Amino acid sequence: MKLIVNADDFGYTRAVSYGIVDAYQTGIVSSTTMMCNVDDLEHPVQLAEQNPTLGVGIHLVLTSGSPVSENVPSLVDGNGQFFRYDEFLKNIQSLESEEIEREWTSQIERFFSTGLKPTHLDSHHHVHARKEIRPIAVQLAKKYGIPLRRVNRETSSGGIYGPVKTTDVLFTDFYKDNVSIDMFETLLLKSVEKVQTVEINCHPGYVDEALVKKSSYVYQRLKEFTVLTSPELKKRIQQLNIDLITYRDI
Fold this sequence. Notes:
- This protein is of the alpha/beta class.
- The protein has helices at about 15-25, 40-50, 85-90, 95-115, 135-145, 180-190, 210-215, 220-230, 230-240; strands at about 1-10, 30-35, 55-60, 120-125, 170, 195-200, 245.
- It has one domain (about 1-250): Glycoside hydrolase/deacetylase (TIM Barrel), CATH 3.20.20.370.
- It is built from nine helices and seven strands, in the order E-H-E-H-E-H-H-E-H-E-H-E-H-H-H-E.
- Strands 1, 2, 3, 4, 5, 6 and 7 form a seven-stranded parallel β-sheet that branches.
- Strand 2, helix 2 and strand 3 (about 55-60) form a beta-alpha-beta unit.
- The chain is globular.
- Keywords: Carbohydrate metabolism, Hydrolase, Magnesium, Metal-binding.
- GO terms for molecular function: deacetylase activity; hydrolase activity, acting on carbon-nitrogen (but not peptide) bonds, in linear amides; metal ion binding.
- Its cofactor is Mg(2+).
């Protein structure tokens, strides 16, 4: 089995970005996805350039910070900020598809402007998994010819991806109270000898003041980092003959 361990939120804050890179250099993280609507995009870009074998994709955003493009009124609150996740769900029926596509295109183009080549697309809070938004993500993946994170853990996608590459399975269970070596191994054992490619997404990181101000998921990132860099987990992966890959390899 081939495994992608993708750290979401690259670029969210400097501490998060440093933690992701260290989890790659000393642990089992093989891939990450960059938030392209952040103010300091130069920092994660520099880290990506310094670690060329780290897979770096695009973490499409609709629920954090402000948009890259202009005139997307259905996507923002009265302060011009993206809706927080709870408010986003309340307003999802009133979001304009054209504005989502234009905003995500702007985020993708900003990534390309750095000179990096994205490995794949996924999204903050998995918003591309919503049935109202998923066709937009699939269409953009087709347009740019890059893989897309699948939206569920089933091995059958019902043909929704067409020619777009994705893994056979995605697990999102390694989160909050389920962050442990045993949980990670449980997810692996569900898939070994059953499917060819699996993604487990995660959120390792260090903590800084910016993270405390912006996120409700703060010190749990340190716990994830500890698990993902533990020698015991690396040993278990080796014992299961699992190959760590990126989306470049699917």
